[in-house]
Amino acid sequence: MATKTVLLVEDIEDDILIMKMACKRTGIPHLLQVVTDGAMALDYLSGNGVYADRTVYPMPDVVFLDIKMPKRDGLEVLLWIRSSLDCATSPWLC
């Protein structure tokens, strides 16, 4: 089974810890990537800055997106995703 990439966009450390524990308990092979604000989420998804290396920061198969976050809220990120990413390359979008 191929490892899937999960992107968690969350700014509360306790919620990040809970998600890490939940993901670990699934037993499903995955790579959990975490960003802590909406601007970082857009950089990750765009492959900008430190996220440019897709071997280290692959496009996610699943995104868990908090709504209330600093810099850009989850709804702004969702609108960007829907307007910027292609469903053919990002099936989780559709």
Structural overview:
The chain has 94 residues and is α/β, with parallel strands linked by helices. 36% of the residues lie in helices and 17% in strands. The chain contains three helices and three strands. It has helices at 13-26, 38-46, 74-84; strands at residues 4-9, 30-35, 62-65. Helix 1 links the parallel strand 1 and strand 2 (30-35). Helix 2 packs parallel to helix 3 (74-84). 16% of the residues are buried. The mean pLDDT is 87.
Blueprint (SSEs and pairs):
Layout: E1 4-9, H1 13-26, E2 30-35, H2 38-46, E3 62-65, H3 74-84
Q: What are the secondary-structure elements, in order, as H or E?
A: EHEHEH
Spatial gap, N to C terminus: 23 Å
Principal-axis shape equals globular
The mean pLDDT is: 87
Strand order of the largest sheet: 2-1-3
Radius of gyration: 13 Å
- What is the count of DSSP helices, taking H or I runs of 4+ residues? 3
Give the uncertain stretches in residue-range form: none
Helix content: 25-40%
Task: Summarize the structure in short.
With 94 residues, this protein is α/β, with parallel strands linked by helices. The protein has helices at residues 13-26, 38-46, 74-84, and strands spanning 4-9, 30-35, 62-65. It is globular, with a radius of gyration of 13 Å.
Task: Supply the key terms.
94 residues, 3 strands, globular, 17% strand, three-stranded parallel sheet
